[in-house]
Amino acid sequence: MEVLDNNIYPIFDRMMGREDKEALLKQHSLMIWFTGLSGSGKSTVAIALERELHRRGLLCRILDGDNIRSGINNNLGFTETDRVENIRRIAEVSKLFIDTGIITIAAFISPSNDLRKMAAEIIGRENFLEVFVNTPLEVCEQRDVKGLYAKARRGEIKNFTGISAPFEAPSHPDLTLDTSKLTLEESVNLLLEKILPKVSR
């Protein structure tokens, strides 16, 4: 029986790591975590940011309530326990994207410092950029595209952040945006100033 030369086959002694993926993509991965009230502009800014990064040849993935709550977290409600589990799962999924070299953009209310701290610890604080979309409640209510605030005011939605559940402003966000004062372009430009030096190779 023929004995195969061991030199023919490479030794697969480890999975390819983040550095390998970042080299392939020619970028550094980063978690950009948007927090703020419903209607503050998180998703709008996140989508515009993704387009600008994509235009620069950078691979991104947006995670927000619509694509998470309808999929991986569709069994969760809005109790305190479920909110914690919601953010924990999001953070774990985000960590996988970060480890794959992908710039990950999350847009979630994530209403407490403890929740955001947990997310940062799972993902890695050195990879975590916290962006507080600090748009006033009255402006968010005026926008109310989905009619959620009106329902919350009528008591039809329980534990609604800003109305029947508290929102705790971040203690030390990396960037604060007020979309009632900044245009979308201004918000994105401020983000790019922070992000591009971190993600460029």
Automatic annotation (TrEMBL):
Active site at which residues? S110
GO molecular function annotation: adenylylsulfate kinase activity; ATP binding
Where, by residue number, does ATP bind?
A: G36, L37, S38, G39, S40, G41, K42, S43
The scientific name of the source species is Candidatus Gallibacteroides avistercoris
Any Pfam family hit: APS_kinase
Q: Can you tell me where the transmembrane regions are?
A: none
Question: Which InterPro entries does the record match to this protein?
Answer: APS (IPR002891), APS_kinase_dom (IPR059117), P-loop_NTPase (IPR027417)
What is a biological process (GO) this protein takes part in? sulfate assimilation
Tell me which domain of life the UniProt entry assigns to the organism this sequence originates from: Bacteria
Which reactions does this protein catalyse? Answer: adenosine 5'-phosphosulfate + ATP = 3'-phosphoadenylyl sulfate + ADP + H(+)
Q: Where is the APS kinase domain?
A: 29-178
SUPFAM superfamilies from the UniProt entry? P-loop containing nucleoside triphosphate hydrolases
Protein name (record):
Adenylyl-sulfate kinase
What's this protein's function?
A: Catalyzes the synthesis of activated sulfate.
Pathway named in the protein's UniProt entry: Sulfur metabolism; hydrogen sulfide biosynthesis; sulfite from sulfate: step 2/3
Question: Which EC number(s) are documented for this chain?
Answer: 2.7.1.25
What family is it from? Belongs to the APS kinase family.
What keywords sit in the KW lines? Answer: ATP-binding, Kinase, Nucleotide-binding, Phosphoprotein, Transferase
Q: What top-level class of enzyme does the UniProt entry assign?
A: transferase
